[in-house]
Amino acid sequence: MIRSWVKRESEYIAHYPVFTLRRDICVSPRTGVDIPAYVLETRDWVVVVPITPEGEVIFVRQYRFASEEITWEIPGGLSDASDASMTAAALRELREETGYDSNQIILLGTCRPNPAILNNTCYLFAALNVVRRHDQHLDAGEDIQVERIPLDRISDLILNGTINHSLVLNAFHLLDLQRRNHRIQIG
């Protein structure tokens, strides 16, 4: 039987703008041995699948430092203390990164991005009938190009590896499940 581990001690090692590194000493319930566990504490994240009335998905293309490549993603990011809710955070990220807005946003589900080392939750949304109403408001560290891709082309882009960001894959999987269960109608 799997049992929870007891955290014997915990210390913060480093603080950065987007995460804090913590080291815990945990006792294995199976062996009784102390094991160091490293945790990145960060705020919850949001991602949003923005879909136009014409059935196109608004993608953002941007350079990612860790993978050193330009990726195909959907808008998303960290929640802010000023966000009234995760829905508000998703709408803010959509506006900032793309200039698009929606009056119909639906929570698709949540996931743990990597529970082995991250403590946060990602909230995945669909924004329907999005319309461009604003200019982009990018952070100094962002350089984002907006692309419109027909929804019916997304599966091919996932299967050929063009779209490979795990949270984006999760969002489209949840969107597909919601559509199959008739909880979301598009077009």
Structure description:
18% of the residues lie in helices and 40% in strands. The mean pLDDT is 97. It has helices at 86-98, 154-159, 166-180; strands at 6-15, 20-27, 34-41, 45-51, 56-64, 69-73, 76-78, 100-101, 104-111, 122-128, 131-132, 145-150. The strands form 4 sheets. Strands 7-4-10-9 form a 4-stranded mixed beta sheet, with helices on both faces. The chain has 2 domains: 6-41; 45-180, Nucleoside Triphosphate Pyrophosphohydrolase. It is built from 3 helices and 12 strands.
Taking pLDDT < 50 over at least 5 consecutive residues as the criterion, the unreliable ranges are: none
Percent of residues in beta strands: 35-45%
Named at the architecture level, the CATH assignment of the largest domain is: Alpha-Beta Complex
Cα end-to-end separation: 48 Å
What is the overall number of helices?
3
Describe the strand arrangement of the main beta sheet, using strand numbers.
Answer: 7-4-10-9
Annotated CATH topology of the largest domain: Nucleoside Triphosphate Pyrophosphohydrolase
Instruction: Give me the secondary-structure category.
Output: alpha+beta
What is the averaged pLDDT score?
A: 97
Count of the separate structural domains? 2
CATH superfamily of the largest domain: Nucleoside Triphosphate Pyrophosphohydrolase
Q: What's the CATH C level of the largest domain?
A: Alpha Beta
Biggest sheet statistics: 4 strands, mixed
**What is the number of beta strands?**
12
Helix content: 10-25%
